[in-house]
């Protein structure tokens, strides 16, 4: 499976962007998908997760109410709609996929559990 992230760019604080993550292969409903981000000089952090059937999502507290994840299985694509962006949202955003469920409290936040990663797309929010 190959993941191709796109949609990043430069935006002013309060603005919006929509990121896309296109997957190759038999995407359909086979994968648990997530977005992570890594700001300069910081560790990678979890942003949001969506289960295979797209009826359950989990967001990091820092983006709740501002970001929305969705998936279009027919197009093999996951989207991240980001509204009311803040300078602290500046980071390289990565989409990730895993093929199996996980156990443990908030295990979906753990990057090493994901099997596939996109190349990242840079989001820069100016103040």
How would you characterize this protein structure?
This protein is mostly beta strands and 127 residues long. The chain is built from no helices and 11 strands. The chain has strands at 3-6, 9-12, 17-23, 32-38, 45-50, 57-59, 67-72, 77-82, 91-98, 116-117, 121-126. The strands form 2 sheets. Strands 2, 4, 5, 6, 9, 10 and 11 form a 7-stranded mixed sheet that branches. The chain has a 4-stranded antiparallel sheet with strand order 1-3-8-7, with no helix packed on it. The mean pLDDT is 92.
Structure summary:
Helix content is 0%, strand content 46%. The chain is an all-beta fold.
What are the key terms here?
127 residues, mainly beta, seven-stranded mixed β-sheet
Q: What multimeric state do the chains show? A: single chain
What's the number of helices? Answer: 0
In sequence order, what are the helices and strands, one letter per element?
EEEEEEEEEEE
| Alpha-beta content class | mainly beta
Radius of gyration: 14 Å
| Main beta-sheet strand count, sense and barrel state | 7 strands, mixed
Beta content comes to: over 45%
Shape: globular
Helix % is: under 10%
How far apart the termini lie comes to: 37 Å
How many strand elements? 11
Mean pLDDT: 92
Low-confidence parts: none
Topology:
Layout: E1 3-6, E2 9-12, E3 17-23, E4 32-38, E5 45-50, E6 57-59, E7 67-72, E8 77-82, E9 91-98, E10 116-117, E11 121-126
Parallel strand pairs: 2-11
Antiparallel strand pairs: 1-3, 3-8, 4-5, 4-9, 5-6, 7-8, 9-10, 9-11
């Amino acid at each position: 499976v190959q993941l191709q992230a796109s949609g990043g760019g430069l935006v002013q604080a309060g603005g919006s962007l929509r990121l896309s993550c296109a997957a190759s292969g038999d995407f359909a409903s086979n994968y648990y998908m997530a977005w992570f981000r890594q700001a300069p000089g910081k560790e990678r952090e979890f942003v949001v997760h969506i289960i295979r059937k797209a009826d359950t999502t989990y967001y990091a507290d820092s983006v709740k109410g501002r970001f929305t994840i969705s998936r279009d299985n027919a197009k093999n694509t996951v989207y991240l709609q980001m509204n009311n962006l803040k300078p602290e949202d500046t980071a390289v955003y990565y989409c990730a996929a895993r093929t199996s469920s996980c156990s443990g409290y908030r295990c979906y936040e753990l990057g090493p559990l994901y099997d596939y990663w996109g190349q990242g797309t840079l989001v820069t929010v100016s103040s």
